Amino acid sequence: MKKDNLFGYTLNDLQQVCENEKFPKFTAKQMADWLYKKRCSSIDEMTNLSLKIRSRLNELYVLEKREPVHSQTSVDGTKKYLFSVGENHYVESVYIPDKDRATLCISSQIGCKMGCKFCVTGKLGFKGNLTAAEILNQIFSIPESLSLTNIVYMGMGEPFDNFDAVLQSIQVLTSEWGVAMSPRRITVSTVGVIPGIREFMEKTECHLAVSLHAPTGDKRSQIMPMQKAYPHSEIVRMLRKYDWSGQRRLSFEYIVFKDFNDDEENAGKLVKLLHHLKCRVNLIRFHVSEGVPLEGVDMDKMIAFRDYLSNEGIICTIRASRGEDIMAACGLLAGKME
Fold it and tell me: How many CB atoms lie within 10 A of CB 242?
């Protein structure tokens, strides 16, 4: 019988372990401290637990963290890590250093169900959900782990299609008994899974990023099949119900495609869609990939689009493209062993 991995457990989970095994109640907090603050690599390292408790934990559980099986470094300093998960599957995460920031972009699924036409990950199809431990492993098992300032759930998969594991990993990252990271340092991206957005808003304080990529339903449905299930107008309407006046940030991701969504007419429609909603728009350069019949635009076009939105009162930035030479940029993660 396969043992469950203790790594990834929340404090509530650890308290349940203690209750089931008749351990002292304070043992749960001790275990959490070893797992997430001291970052131990084995149950035997939990030296303030009695030998009897450690022996019993070893009978019931493993404490498993997996180092990356491969890594690549871009000319711009970006690093892509490949992790083995499940049986013969891989996921990727991307480390992005930038002055006083060190961001890790992590995956939540093996492949993806969403089928966005511009995304390499979507072409893989869906192979499975990551567990909370496998999500957290991407953070804990890289050399830069202790220097990370920001986490973005923008890698492989749709986070809200694996909501429970994503939420569990966020609890570990943001709770005082865990990593104690500020939720303002974490952003979760979604194509707009409405039930997931609702639960996310209720249960976390993290930032939200919505993949929009087109200002009208007709255009969005051409490149994002999930538009039919979760229309962008309904997503925006729901987001207007929340208070964005504090530190929590709402952003919309917008890949700019040549002769598709890149002109002043599209910019005007985007302004109309987002009017009076406190948010920012992140413009993303399209990274050409094999088999995708879409093209990117030059920087002049990106700047013109940005300036139009800015002049209309919408905060708009052009996201710097990082790691394209190692297939680490937005939409290029494929989870393949080279």
Answer: 15
